[in-house]
Amino acid sequence: MHVAPRVSQHIVTMTIGGLLLTSFNFYAQMQDEMGYNSSMLAMVYFVKMSIITINYRDGAGDLDKVLTEREMKYRLLERPILSEYCHYIFGLPSCLVGPPYEYKDWFDFIERQN
């Protein structure tokens, strides 16, 4: 999240993440893996990175008139610190239990807020 300005980092993150995801998929196909496929985790990471960067982009303030109520609820006004970001992206429980969730939901759960 430190690579690009706030208003364009979602594009940079999706581009880099998409390229990495594509390379993981090519690697998995070349290895002809049976059973565990490492690209499945990369897909979850890609979705979570996209979620957090889009929420951070929504918090810039220039789109407040066009954001929906849900987008206003989940926007991030401040950039998360590196440890929180890594725990959200790479936390094992979220990779095992199903669909990704919003960063604010995870943060509120960790901080025991409503």
Low-confidence stretches: none
Fraction of helical residues = 55-70%
Mean pLDDT: 82
**Tally of individual domains:** 1
What does the largest sheet look like? none
Count of beta strands: 0
SSE string, helices as H and strands as E: HHHHHH
CA(first)-CA(last) distance: 27 Å
Calculate Rg over CA atoms. Answer: 15 Å
Principal-axis shape:
globular
Strand residues, percent = under 5%
> By helix and strand content, what is the structural category?
mainly alpha
Number of helices: 6
Per-chain topology:
Layout (H helix, E strand, L loop, with lengths): L8 H23 L6 H21 L10 H6 L7 H9 L1 H6 L5 H9 L3
Helix pairs in contact: 1-2
Task: Give an account of the 3D structure.
- With 114 residues, the chain is mainly alpha-helical.
- The chain has one domain (9-111).
- It is 65% helix and 0% strand.
- The chain has helices spanning 9-31, 38-58, 69-74, 82-90, 92-97, 103-111.
- Helix 1 (9-31) runs antiparallel to helix 2.
- The radius of gyration is 15 Å and the shape is globular.
- It starts with 8 loop residues before the first helix and ends with a helix.
- The relative contact order is 0.13.
- The mean pLDDT is 82.
